[in-house]
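Sat 14:20. Reprocessing the chain from the morning session after the first attempt stalled halfway. Input below, unchanged.
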Amino acid sequence: MTTIQLAGLAVVAIVAFALLHRLAWFAWSLADRAARRASPHLRGWGAMAYAHPLRAAFAARWPRLYAVLARRVNPHSFAGLPLTLMAIAALYVFGLFGGLIEDLLQREGIILFDADINALFAACRVTPLLEAFLWLTAFGSSPAIVAVGVVATGFLWSHSRSFLVAPLWITVLGAQATTWAGKYVIGRERPGFIEAASAVAPSFPSAHATAAMAVYGFIAYVIARELPTARARFELVFWTATMVTSIGFSRIFLGVHYTSDVVGGFLVGTFWLLVGVAGAERARRTRPGGQ
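Finished this time. Tokens:
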């Protein structure tokens, strides 16, 4: 690949990224406005449900079941509807991961797809890009993740957020344990990667992708919760997602992982991110004077 081709690729990538940023902000703005419009209706949900005749009949016939369901769909408490939706999302992610494993074990079309994607980037693995992606992929390595976790712990402790330390490390350790267990249970061989990169463990799922999604995602959640505006939260989420995606892509570009390895890592990381956020919100509400 020549210098002119690299320059042209960089220009196309910058333009495409700028368009993606604008599109993502437009979608975020629509979602934020929809949430604000729905908020008054949610605040009146309890009164409307209480006045409905079916609600009264159901509560009288099955009081215990009604009490359980009412707690699960209560939009005013995190332990109600928000936690229920997060649990459903976590189960859905877990199901997707299980389906991906099944495809790998049955050697369906995903194997051919992985090989084609890996071959697609063979011509692009030239020195300037390799150096950039080798630098980027280091942010998902175990030493970097542990260092980030330790630094984040110090900041949380010093800013009176020590109740978030346990959820942070549950996220870190849970993601790592699940990933490494999956690697040796499935035992998938890695693709033939370049000499500049190093990897010895089995391929599926990608530990870099898992750790990046779980840990950087959790830190972004902690920061975003304190930000005052929707635009500030959007920028934090967008750039965190960009970083996480880039780390995952670097594993594919360097040839140390197949695409399905990275997707599997993202799914595992998302599952533990949801677990960590749920634990953090519970800890926030159970601490003295916490909200």
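The radius of gyration is 22 Å.
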